[in-house]
Design the sequence.
């Protein structure tokens, strides 16, 4: 799933035109959660397993047991988190061939308490707080995707698929509690479209250039050096470095 701002470069039809659909209530909304890592959970004939994105490799990496995790990841913080997720989800209600995906928000030990009694955690770059006390939970996961016949479907009620039998699991669906867009925002979006149409430039880029540019933009964001005034500087160096490492 690409970020909206990336689609301006990626899309054949510039997504600025999506504003019409947004303002006409033809677009559904989801909240982007900043969890890490991305967790896949499924059930096969051997039972419940967890996986990372390696699940889509030619030889999928599925972790049915602690030994599976340790043999692949060794003694590492990531392995420790997957141990907790596998243990927490072993009694879930998923059926054979079910496969769901979510973002891991925390495992026990990641939770701190603020002075005003709120629970706080940070899986990636965003610090989250909640009035609920989470210290007794083993893992927190936000679910967002279900796979049916190898096709990703966003927004299913995965929480119900997992069920309530997982002790210590704090879980919810990513599309829960999304407020509808208000009229003030629609007005602002319409103004943005008008302003964009006055300055837009048509361009056509090679697909490889597009892919590298998106990676470059995301690297700028992670470094904290992204600028709304432009991000072309050093892109050529980024491409050369990428090519050099590939050759090496």
Sequence:
């Amino acid at each position: 799933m690409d970020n909206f701002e990336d689609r301006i470069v990626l899309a054949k039809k510039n997504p600025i035109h999506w504003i019409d659909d947004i303002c006409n209530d033809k677009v559904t909304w989801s909240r982007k959660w900043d969890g890490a890592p991305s967790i896949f959970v499924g059930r096969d004939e051997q039972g419940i397993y967890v996986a990372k994105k390696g699940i889509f490799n030619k030889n999928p990496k599925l972790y049915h047991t602690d030994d599976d995790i340790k043999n692949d990841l060794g003694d590492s913080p990531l392995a420790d988190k997957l141990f907790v997720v596998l243990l927490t989800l072993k009694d879930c209600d998923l059926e054979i061939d079910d496969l769901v995906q979510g973002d891991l928000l925390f495992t026990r030990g990641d939770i701190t308490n603020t002075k005003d009694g709120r629970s706080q955690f940070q899986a990636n770059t965003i610090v989250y707080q909640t009035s609920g006390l989470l210290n007794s939970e083993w893992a927190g996961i936000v679910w967002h995707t279900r796979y049916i016949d190898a096709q990703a479907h966003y927004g299913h009620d995965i929480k119900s698929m997992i069920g309530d039998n997982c002790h210590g699991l704090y879980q919810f669906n990513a599309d829960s509690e999304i407020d509808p867009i208000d009229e003030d925002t629609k007005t602002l979006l319409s103004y943005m479209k008008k302003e964009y149409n006055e300055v837009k430039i048509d361009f056509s880029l090679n697909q490889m250039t597009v892919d590298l540019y998106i990676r470059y933009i995301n690297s700028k964001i992670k470094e904290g050096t992204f600028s709304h005034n432009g991000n072309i500087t050093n892109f050529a160096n980024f491409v050369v470095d990428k090519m050099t490492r590939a050759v090496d």
Remarks:
- The helical segments are 4-10, 18-23, 66-73, 77-89, 158-162, 183-199, 207-223, 235-247.
